[in-house]
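This part of the workshop introduces the protein records we will be handling. Each record describes a single protein and holds just a pair of labelled lines. Instead of coordinates, the fold is spelled out as a row of discrete tokens. To make this concrete, we reproduce a full record directly below:
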Amino acid sequence: MTLQDVVGAGAVVLRDVAPNTTVVGNPARVVAERPAGWHDTVLTPPLAREAA
């Protein structure tokens, strides 16, 4: 798991999770995969994006 992964509440993760992946359930299963770099646009405040 990495900082870019999303794990649903109560999910039981039994194996490694690929980067940029969302997993949910018991046992955890992949429900979404995002392209690399998605977190840069989601977590950066809009004003900081305009200044760059």
